[in-house]
Amino acid sequence: MSRESEPRLFSVEPLLPFEAAALDDRLTAQVVVNRPLTSVFDYTVPEALADWIAPGCRVRVPFGRGNQQLVGYCVGLTRGVPQRRKLKEVVELIDREPLVSSMMLELTHWMSERYLCGWGQVIESVVPAGVKRQAGTREITCYALADNVNETLATRKLSKKQRLLIDFLSEAKEPQTVESLTTAGDCGTSPIHALVKSGLLVPIRRRVQRDEIDAKSILPQADLQLSGDQREALDKINGSLREQQHQTILLHGVTGSGKTEVYIQAIREVVSYGRQAIVLVPEISLTPQTIRRFSARFSNVAVLHSHLKDAERHWHWQRIASGEVQVVVGARSAVFAPLPQLGLIIIDEEHESTFKQQTTPRYHAREVARERCRIEKVPLVLGSATPTLESLERAQRGVDLLVSLPKRIENRPLPPVFLVDIRNDPLIARGHSIGRSLERAMRMALDEKGQIILFLNLRGYSTVVWCPSCRGGVKCPDCDITLTWHRDRQLLMCHSCEYASGPVQQCPVCDKPGVKYIGSGTQRLEQEVKTKFPGVSLMRMDSDSMRQPGSHDVALEAFRRGEIRILLGTQMIAKGLDFPAVTLVGVIDADTQLHQPDLRASERTFQLIAQVAGRTGRGDRPGRVLVQTMNPDEPVIQHASRHDYLAFAREELKHRLEMHSPPFAKLARIILRGLDESTVQLQARELAQLIREQSTALASGVRVLGPAPAQILKLRKHFRYHMLLSAAELSQLESLWHSVVPLINLRPDIEMQIDVDPMDMR
Ligand code: ADP
Ligand code: ZN
Predict the structure, then answer these.
(1) Strand bridging mode 58-63 / 68-79
(2) Which among 227, 229, 260, 281 is the best mutation to test ligand 1's pocket, defined by most ligand atoms within 8 Å of the CB?
(3) What is the pLDDT of residues 27-83, one digit of tens each?
(4) Residue in 670, 669, 671, 674 with CA at minimum distance from that of residue 719
(5) Distances (CA, A) of 730 to 111, 293, 666, 667, 727
């Protein structure tokens, strides 16, 4: 954050140092800074700022030995506390109003403990940059009628123009800008000044939006008549709402069971109490379809997605804080939206991995939502067709409430899922992605005027560039990742960093010719579909083809209108879409995640098949699903083909219990990274040793696994080693960590990351 860009409100010269004893009755501010530090620092507040400072305001403070000035957050104020040390002073108060509420201070403090990171780091990251800068606003002067305008009027004689302005203002009820006054009065500014002088008008400084942000109007729609199951689910949520006690409700509803309608009517109840609600959805579900569903039912919806400009986000933030917004629909970070009277949080597609943030603070929106709802004494609803085992297990223990929607709306059947064993398919053997059965099914679906979705979770053209001499894939020079050939851009690209190069004929490692471009991504699949079904309208959706903001929406609309017959893509098309005319879904390769060395490999495979299958048979026409796999007997694939979530969960939970893995254990992953591999390795060994010793000494009950090279050893030029801490309870991890932190002494060229409840183990 640059110093120039911040609004500066008060600035004081540093005062002369006081005697320690004199500090007693002065105001002391507790300040946290954006550093990986758990400490809160005390500063004295100069008298000039004492009336203005409040917890939640930003301050500028001298920090560390060099007294470098940093922006920090005031998190508390005390008076009259004797200080043993001489304290430094707050140099400047940046905000006139607190930037974060007391609830947010409590929540961010909880996050810093839960995710083992600095409180200041958490606050810094949850307040949007646009809000800090007050982006897109400027101060202007507005004019309002004075309070005693009627008495004054009786004693004054007004000109015609002045009269007009007074009438206009009493009609308008709101303070008005100079422009609107001069337009209304068809005059210059002198009548305004005259009215101010005679005490009839008062000027008011206001911060306003620089540009009007356009809000599209959407035709309102009435609520639907709920089915019996939906009503039951709604009654349970409403019951919890009325009790004004926190309760987490897991809404397990198969795809197409009408979960969204339940959310909407629960929010209806919330709004009727004058409160507001948050709906969190995965970023890729923030389609116009989702937005329309909420906007058609509520008059004031704010949508927070990652494409918002700073000024837009700030504008929404202010509208939300003013209480005028009824529903906030947004991705992960919308959990921090400043609703004045929160009534309910809903997390749709609770199982999605995008709810976990992959940078510090590495929080999971579900856990933050749970804590926020606990603080604000309101219910949290988690909705999914395939809940995470963590959420299911809590519900099974009775900590959370389980509510089920076992059937689709109007008793529509779940689509039959056919497993296609492609081990002996002649086309697949020749390198095709679409095997015989799937090709036949596609022809039938097209003949019957249906639409088709093809799913392949690998983007690019060739997913591996293979060197027969090295017997390995060609890797990124900076990462431990094989390069993907993108034919459209004629580039070999790394999917982890920005590395790209032109095509190669020789292996860059052994210089031998004859490298082969093998493996299929969505681009090659697109080519294959074009060849097999010439003239059929087709669209590819992946993060390469959908780079423009908004292109996603345009594409989906075209598909909805039937202009496109075949939609193929990555997980971008697997989620939440509701297209009644889709009669066939093809999963090109169900096994991509299955054999990953990740404790959630089975869970992800199940979720994927279930979610993709959920995209068909949603209208009057029945649909079906073909899943190509080399592992048709794998239990998880069998369960998925029968839509049997509970059977899958039973088996997987048993397995997790045996393996002491989540939800039966709590994990924290520590990664060390640095440019020199042997240093990283050595430091990782020392750290693991230290943690083990400390764990034994304290009988902490924490197990340490590792260190080991991370699955992706090299990432963006840095070598990575990791270790895993595992315990029955989070509190065990927390207390061990607090005792270890002061003892850690890493070399400055080694960076440490800690990830509590890691979702990504690579
Ligand atoms: P889910 O979120 O569980 O996948 P949706 O909320 O998308 O399910 O609902 C599936 C479809 O059923 C949608 O088209 C929705 O408009 C419709 N629907 C939901 N509830 C009802 C209802 N009570 N009566 C009629 N149609 C409904
Ligand atoms: Zn790379």
Answers:
(1) antiparallel
(2) 260
(3) 999 999 998 888 899 999 998 898 889 999 999 999 988 899 999 999 999 987 776
(4) 674
(5) 13, 38, 6, 8, 7
Which among 292, 578, 579, 643 is the best mutation to test ligand 1's pocket, defined by most ligand atoms within 8 Å of the CB? 578
Task: With H, G, I as helix, E, B as strand and everything else as coil, classify residue 272.
Answer: helix
Does any ligand 1 atom lie closer than 6 A to the CB of residue 230? Answer: yes
Residue 260 CA, closest ligand 1 atom number: 6
Environment of ion ligand 2 (residues, CB < 5 A): 476, 478-479, 494, 496-497, 499
Residue pair 337/317 in contact (Cβ under 8 Å)? The answer is yes
Report how far apart the first and last C-alpha atoms of the chain are (Å, whole number): 31
Q: How far is the CA of 717 from the centre of ligand 2 (A)?
A: 8
Low-confidence stretches of the chain (pLDDT < 70) are 1-24, 83-84, 207-218, 549, 575-576
| pLDDT (0 to 100) of residue 216 | 55
**Residue range 166-196, pLDDT digits in tens:** 888 888 877 888 888 888 888 888 889 888 8
Q: Report whether residue 611 contacts ligand 1, using a CB cutoff of 6 Å.
A: no
CB 170 within 8 A of CB 184: no
Comparing C-alpha atoms, which of 387, 383, 382 is closest to residue 368? 382
Ligand nearest to the CA of 293: 1
Task: Judge if the beta carbon of residue 296 lies within 6 A of ligand 1.
Answer: no
336-359 pLDDT, tens digit per residue, is 999 999 999 999 999 999 999 999
Cα-to-chain-centroid distance, residue 188 = 50
**Residue 416 and residue 438: Cα distance in Å, rounded?**
14
Question: Which tokens hold the place of 377?
Answer: 């004494």
Greatest CA separation for the chain: 100
The pLDDT value recorded for residue 329 is 95
